[in-house]
Amino acid sequence: MPSPRLRSKCDGRKCIPGKRGGRRPFYLSQGDECDVFEAAYANGLPVLLKGPTGCGKTRFVAHMAARLGRKLYTVACHDDLAAADLIGRYLLKGGETVWVDGPLTRAVREGAICYLDEVVEARKDVTVVLHPLTDDRRTLPIDRTSEELAAAPGFMLVASYNPGYQNILKTLKPSTRQRFISLEFDFPAPKLETEVVAEESGLDRERVAALVRLAGKLRALKGQDLEEGVSTRLVVYAATLIAQGMPVERAIRAAMIEPLTDDEDVKRGLLDLVTAVFG
């Protein structure tokens, strides 16, 4: 979640009806990220979210889509994701060859939000397709059907990635990054993270606060014994298990230790840290 700044209008509001009568996913802002996103939407500007895994980027997009009353298409990018997976392809249906739109094309036609999660994981031809949608053209060329779709009103392109995982083979070119407004996310401050975890899990704040303290100590080990710190998502999982009656140590091991490492020596060290925090 973003660095603390001016508190946004959407602070702490849970499950408020959206414009289409749905319920907003809970999201507790730490700054003006909701206002920046709304301003980008109003002006047809694409947004890039940067931050570690599990810090709230995907939840933020879901919250904002509901808040704006827009349909949301989410694509989890991966090594084999090609431009055709986003745009569409010809498929056999009932003995006939028919064109089937991909999620990006549907979003462009319908005026929806298309969210590309971990966009750097996709193949390089994906970013080429995105370029005409991220400048004043706001068009999507479809070579297979000889179409050039103009984005319908309300269309918005949102992408995210984790800069901590970047390497020479997986990074966004400056020419691509500079087509987006960027919002930097990080894990929330302990007080706010306690609010989020308590709200999501139903566990009392006193016990949640101890889990959040443990999460902070685990995150401090990133780059030493751990490749990545524990996410807010995993803290919510642990709190949920505890709220359902699971013993604290077992819940923490299942949700906050085992997902971080397979190394038995490291696990033992992390469990010693759990004992130091919880006694």
UniProtKB/TrEMBL annotation:
The segment(s) forming the CbbQ/NirQ/NorQ C-terminal domain are: 193-277
What Pfam families does this protein's entry cite?
AAA_5, CbbQ_C
Write the protein's name.
CbbQ/NirQ/NorQ/GpvN family protein
Source organism (scientific name): Roseibium salinum
Asked if the Swiss-Prot or TrEMBL record annotates the protein with the keyword Nucleotide-binding, the reply is yes
List the InterPro entries: ATPase_dyneun-rel_AAA, CbbQ/NirQ/NorQ/GpvN, CbbQ_C, P-loop_NTPase
* Family under the similarity heading: Belongs to the CbbQ/NirQ/NorQ/GpvN family.
Q: Which UniProt keywords apply?
A: ATP-binding, Nucleotide-binding
Reply yes or no: does the keyword Nucleotide-binding apply. yes
Q: Signal sequence: where?
A: none
Organism superkingdom = Bacteria
The segment(s) forming the ATPase dynein-related AAA domain are 46-180
